Amino acid sequence: MSDYKYSLGIDIGGTNTVFGLVAGDGQIIKKDSILTNPNKAPDLLFENIFNKIKVWEKELCINDIIKDIGI
């Protein structure tokens, strides 16, 4: 399973941002949501998303899990 790479889908909303890992066959591997906090700098939003991805990499025992990103 260490060769798996997934697409990261991100839906940035005014209140919440939903994101998840999607396999090539469309299967959702992992998903989560966080508060968007539109009054804060955008880099903080992406830092929170990528911190969660680091957790997923440990859970799935996969490094560099993302092959592409769609926002």
Concise description?
The chain has 71 residues and is α+β, with helices and mostly antiparallel strands.
Shape: globular
Mean pLDDT: 93
Tell me the span between the first and last alpha carbons: 26 Å
| Gyration radius, rounded | 12 Å
Give the biggest sheet. 4 strands, mixed
- How much of the residues is beta strand, in percent? 35-45%
What pattern of helices and strands is seen along the backbone? EEEHE
Work out the helicity level: 25-40%
- Overall number of strands: 4
User: Poorly predicted ranges (pLDDT <50, ≥5 residues)?
Assistant: none
> Which secondary-structure class do the elements indicate?
alpha+beta
SS summary, helix count:
1
Report strand order across the widest sheet.
3-2-1-4
List the helices and strands and how they pair.
Elements: E1 6-12, E2 16-22, E3 28-35, H1 42-60, E4 66-70
Parallel strand pairs: 1-4
Antiparallel strand pairs: 1-2, 2-3
Key traits:
71 residues; alpha+beta; 4-stranded mixed beta sheet; 1 helix
Structure description:
- With 71 residues, the protein is α+β, with helices and mostly antiparallel strands.
- The protein has one helix spanning 42-60; strands spanning 6-12, 16-22, 28-35, 66-70.
- It has a four-stranded mixed sheet, covered by helices on one side.
- The protein is built from one helix and four strands; from the N terminus they run E-E-E-H-E.
- It is 27% helix and 38% strand.
- The mean pLDDT is 93.
